[in-house]
Amino acid sequence: MTLTFSATVAARGFAVDLRIETGETVAVLGPNGAGKSTLLNIVAGLVHPDSGRADLDRTPLFDLDDGARLWTPPHARGVSTLAQDADLFPHLSVLENVAFGARSKGIRRARAREIALHWLSEVDAVALASRRPAELSGGQAQRIAIARALASDPKLLLLDEPLAALDIAVAPAIRRTLLRVLQDRTAIIVTHDILDALTLADRVIVLAHGHIIEQGPTRETLERPRTVFTADLAALNLLTGIRTPRGMTTDAGVEIASTVATSAPPGSRVAATIRPTAVRVSVEQAPGRAGNRFTAPILDLEPRGDIIRVRSDAISADLTPTAVADAQITTGMNVEFAFDPDAVTIYEADSPRVPRSGARSDSA
Amino acid sequence: MSQQAPFAGVPRWVAGVAAIGALFVLLPLVAMLTRVNWGEFIPLVTSESSLAALWLSLRTSIAATLLCIVFGIPMALVLARSRFPGQRLLRSLVLLPLVLPPVVGGIALLYTFGRRGLLGTTLEFLGIDIAFSTTAVVMAQTFVALPFLVLSLEGALRTVGTRFEAIGATLGARPTTVLRRITLPLVLPALISGAVLSFARALGEFGATLTFAGSLQGTTRTLPLEIYLQREVDPDAAVALSLVLIVVAVIVVGLAHRAGTASTLTRSARP
Hints:
- Chain A is α+β, with helices and mostly antiparallel strands.
- Chain A has two domains: 3-221, 3-Layer(aba) Sandwich (Rossmann fold), CATH 3.40.50; 235-348, CATH 2.40.50.100.
- Helices cover 23% and strands 30% of the residues of chain A.
- By secondary structure, chain B is mainly alpha-helical.
- Chain B has a single domain (41-268), classed as MetI-like (MetI-like fold).
- Helices cover 77% and strands 0% of the residues of chain B.
- Chain B contains 13 helices and no strands.
- The longest helix of chain B has 34 residues, at 48-81.
- Residues 264-271 of chain B have low confidence and may be disordered.
- Classes of the chains: A alpha+beta, B mainly alpha.
- The A-B interface holds A 44-46, 73-81, 83, 85-92, 100-101, 103-105, 132-134, 136, 138, 141, 148-149, 152, 158 and B 163-164, 166-175, 177-178, 181-182, 185-186, 188, 266, 269-271.
């Protein structure tokens, strides 16, 4: 079930080439409007690209290159979609919803029922079979939607932020279900959540402005980001510059010391990550002290669960609300960001597309 | 759900104006009820001409409603789901019978399907004579009633949107399967209320029928025509028949209302 895909949509500035191997799950990350949904809709057959071609398992999905006008309609592609909202058919029972795909392929009622029950048991929802969608909670509905998508026996499964609309309390259970059913399945998952990517995907693709800006194995790509957006998504500060014997000189000319081992030779282009939790913020500046320090105005204070992310244009720090309140930190204030040399991980920035250090991604 | 009345926020004067409007609609009905000759009511409405008119009205209105369904569903689908140049213009033209005086509609039909009409010679050649026949009654009624179904269904199709249809397609359902198993069940309440409205409009049709089909007892003289004619010679019969028409209309409106409530239920029940 290998997918090869290449398409452009001029009106949206979309131009993406990708290949997904059999059994591989690929996460597509990117800010809003990056073209993630466009990608899924083109693969599903709901949006016509201007040019390109795509094959799923050597059967063409579309071919619009060199004057060819081949277009396989959505129902004949073997591509199922699981969206943020379960969108179960409100007029059908849970069982009928799950059996829909099989029935549409002309499978007899009794057999379609068996298939539906099998997939309901896969998502631990057999007990819900006779319910109406209106009688389900959000998490239950999403389970049924997973079963419905899988019961249509897709060659490729598209997941469009499948956990985004769920309660924080339910999401982990659904994520586990997805992890189980996505084993050995060819799938593309669009997500904003790094945890989804880390748990579910073998590989990540980062999209921005309709183009792939970064891709690679999930963990490596997210731990050693080469773009500000990816770093942001992975909740890491990203600095770029030139390797020095003690650490690095950033593109803005700041000397950074690092004691973390690295293979990057002096003089090479490097990137460095610093966890925001490792960054301290102080209102009084103490020039004498050792370690890395930046002075910068605070751009905004962003609440993130039980911590507050204090952002400047170069670096961010995660503080507790109490710490923010005690220090009376407010937006616009000039403060000192400090972090220890052992918190700086330096690695080679082999990509020529690395943006300038400190350029703040607009997705934040 | 709480049983308490939610905050309504309707100013009193609005309620007052609404009451005047309601009176304006209800008072004539009451006035008519006071003029019904109850002693003669049964013989009046069961006279041969009355029964013939009632029977003809019911038959033709049902036929017209079926035609509205057969042609209205595809029209609503095309208007709601596809995009083509001139679509807005086409929609206004299709809905024209709503604003057109029915007499004008009758004249237009006559000059299309009448013996000397646009298609007259072709139809005559085929041995079909439509004007002043029961077929003409059905056509006149369909002409004026079709927009009601198209309008109500098109609105529902737009409200329901295409997301369920897209999901159906990605699950492997062909367009016809999607139409049969997803689209039509989802808009069924609107289809029913649209059909009921079309039926009511067909039942009350007067101007286009008289112009295009004439007034032949048992063939083209429907209940509204019979009432109009009786008014000249036997006002009691006209009032009695009007009451019959009102009863049928009330039943029809009741059905439409029920279908309407069912449709809001489905909509709010969506997860």
